[in-house]
């Protein structure tokens, strides 16, 4: 895992980055590896791949963060990327794999109300995706919206959103 994280830091080759991220994502399916990746500084390395990278690299980084977000301590570190993930969701092509990967991460990050406030500005986008996206996109957006609606503090923001 340490070598994969170092490889991500050392290369600018998108194909190598994708493969390293896929392997880290698969490794993160095991809870013991989630802690190891965090302790090795992997969350910030993977999070850094969300900006200025090829769309496929961003998608694989989002998938890795999604698997890593199953851990509360990891969520505390991943939450700093929520605004950027929301921007990626908004700017990605409609119903693309990149957009779906971002929505899956936002679904996990919105299970508790701790980070809902970071998603407020994206509510109009979520509602737009609900009306314009494919079935897969609509289902994923609904999961985020259901999580947000479970928080009474979000009611006003959800009801007042301009669509």
UniProtKB/TrEMBL annotation:
One of its GO terms (cellular component) is mitochondrial outer membrane. Keywords: Membrane, Mitochondrion, Mitochondrion outer membrane, Transmembrane, Transmembrane helix. The keyword Repeat does not apply. Residues 1-163 form the Armadillo repeat-containing domain. It is found in: Mitochondrion outer membrane. It is a single-pass membrane protein. PANTHER family: ARMADILLO REPEAT CONTAINING 10 (PTHR15712:SF23), ARMADILLO REPEAT CONTAINING PROTEIN (PTHR15712). This is ARM10 protein. The lineage of its organism: Eukaryota, Metazoa, Chordata, Craniata, Vertebrata.
